[in-house]
């Protein structure tokens, strides 16, 4: 009797933990891929009601092009615990959401199943993409600075040496010096414009 009370209490606590966890969670059948249970956070984040979820499979929250990968992953990953795989899911309205999935193999209502937690990392993915874009812009600016800016600067330095050594060609050298300084100004202006975009 005590054992049954203890198991019932434990099951009640675990069910409460599952249903009220702030991270979306669900249980799906590893054979049919049908949702067997979902928590409140999953219904809030994904936009489906509990009834809708329970009439769906995990394929329904994936982009069509990912479905074969999902099916293969379920077949190939029979580990008791799998942590940290990143997947793209779709909300009811079609909005993509990137999640870090943790999966536990369990038996649920006498069926082989997986308990999933899906931590939303969409903001992180957006920030990574933004950092990547900024990094590419910085590389482009560095290349321009090292290649485009250096050429007119080297020419200006050479022309200054000519001026110091030969005053006979002063008008020609001054004209070339002016051209190179204008070219350098144009390149720097373009780099600044590019950096501000």
Can you give a write-up of this model?
It is a single chain. Mean pLDDT is 81; it is low at 1-6. 12% of the residues are buried. The protein is α+β, with helices and mostly antiparallel strands and 197 residues long. The longest helix has 44 residues, at 122-165. It starts with a helix and ends with a helix. It folds into two domains: 2-120, PAS domain (Beta-Lactamase); 126-196. The protein has a five-stranded antiparallel sheet with strand order 2-1-5-4-3. Helix 5 (122-165) packs antiparallel against helix 6 (170-196). It contains six helices and five strands, in the order αββαααβββαα. It has helices spanning 2-20, 40-46, 50-54, 67-76, 122-165, 170-196; strands at 25-29, 35-38, 81-90, 96-108, 111-120.
Please outline the helices and strands.
Layout: H1 2-20, E1 25-29, E2 35-38, H2 40-46, H3 50-54, H4 67-76, E3 81-90, E4 96-108, E5 111-120, H5 122-165, H6 170-196
Antiparallel strand pairs: 1-2, 1-5, 3-4, 4-5
Helix pairs in contact: 5-6
What attributes characterize this protein structure?
rod-shaped; 57% helix; 6 helices; single chain; alpha+beta; 2 domains; 197 residues; Beta-Lactamase; 5-stranded antiparallel beta sheet
């Amino acid at each position: 009797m005590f054992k049954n009370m203890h198991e019932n209490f434990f099951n009640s606590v675990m069910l409460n933990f599952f249903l009220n966890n702030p991270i979306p969670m669900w249980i799906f059948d590893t054979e049919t891929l049908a949702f067997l249970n979902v928590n409140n956070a999953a219904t809030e984040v994904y936009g489906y009601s509990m009834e809708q979820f329970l009439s769906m499979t995990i394929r329904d929250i994936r982009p069509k092009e990912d479905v074969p990968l999902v099916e293969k992953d379920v077949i190939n990953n029979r580990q008791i615990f799998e942590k940290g795989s990143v997947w793209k899911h779709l909300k009811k309205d079609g909005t993509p959401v990137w999640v870090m999935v943790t999966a536990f193999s369990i038996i649920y209502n006498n069926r082989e199943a997986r308990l999933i937690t899906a931590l939303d990392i969409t903001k992180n993915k957006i920030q990574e993409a933004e950092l990547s874009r900024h990094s590419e812009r910085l590389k482009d600016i560095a290349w321009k600075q090292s290649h485009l800016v250096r050429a007119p600067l080297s020419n200006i330095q050479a022309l200054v040496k000519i001026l110091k050594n030969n005053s006979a060609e002063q008008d020609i050298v001054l004209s070339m010096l002016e051209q190179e300084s204008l070219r350098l100004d144009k390149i720097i202006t373009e780099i600044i414009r590019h950096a501000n975009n």
